[in-house]
Amino acid sequence: MSDGQHDPLSHDGSAEIGVLVCHGFTGSPRSMRPWAQHLVEQGWTVRLPLLPGHGTTWQEANTTTWQDWYGCVDAAFAELRERCERVFVVGLSMGGALTLRLAEQHGSAISGIVLVNPIVAMLQAQTRLLPVVSRFVASMPAIGNDIAMPGVQEGAYERTPLRAAASLRSFLRLVRADLPKVDQPLRLFHSTQDHVVEPENSAIILREVNSTDVAEIVLADSYHVATLDYDAERIFTGSVEFIRQVGEQAEAR
User: Fold this and answer.
1) Which amino acids are annotated catalytic?
2) How far apart are the C-alpha atoms of 97 and 22, rounded to whole Å?
3) What's the DSSP call for residue 81?
4) What are the beta bridge partners of residue 47?
5) What is the pLDDT of residues 153-198, one digit of tens each?
6) Residues 2-58: tens digit of each pLDDT
7) Going along 81-235, which residue ranges are E strands?
8) What b/e string do you get for 44-75 counting C-beta neighbours within 10 Å, with b at 16 or more?
9) CB-CB contact of 146 with 196 (8 Å)
10) Which of 213, 209, 242, 201 is nearest to 35 (CA)?
11) What is this structure's pTM?
């Protein structure tokens, strides 16, 4: 994975708005790069980190835990907060869970969040066995490149690292338990056909957060990795409109 698409992105733009972009489990910045570049084009300061154990091999992912992944985005958030007046966080899939955890932990220091096909719960019964199975089985075949658009690749691992997945399951339980702490303005994009994350996840989030400025946007033409799919432009333009709107409302107060 050395084509550069898996590398992190860091751009210093305006001091008014910073945006942290979080990719998903077994993915890399490749799945979020077009979105991050669209945010850069607005003149904003943008950080798209590469999570530990990602963009390399699934074996390396198995040596990392959710604390490593969250620590990475938390450090990037701290840098943006020091540099920018307002900080927004956006995330895909597990990146959505990382986004929610940041919102739970940092409260009003985050001006708003955008989620795309986020996960907060592993709902399939067999995932309960992950803590035990992962001690004996290192990996299993993955569902990668869940994209409706032909010929588009996200570059995710072809196998799911089970020790890392067990850690993810523990993390999601924490995130879901604290969803009522989320009260920031929120936009949630989710696909009607998602073969990776059950749509019930979006319903759980919308039901359990305490945000008052909330909008749900349904994506009819994309699968899980919607940031690289037919609805990508809707996500990009919608997130920019949202960030500008929140900023204008803050200035009007």
Assistant:
1) 93, 194, 224
2) 9
3) H
4) 10, 20
5) 898 999 999 999 999 999 999 999 999 999 999 999 999 999 999 9
6) 467 889 999 999 999 999 999 999 999 999 999 999 999 999 999 999 999 999 999
7) 86-92, 112-116, 139-141, 159-161, 186-191, 214-219
8) bbbbbbbbbbbbeebeebbebbbebbbebbbe
9) yes
10) 242
11) 0.95
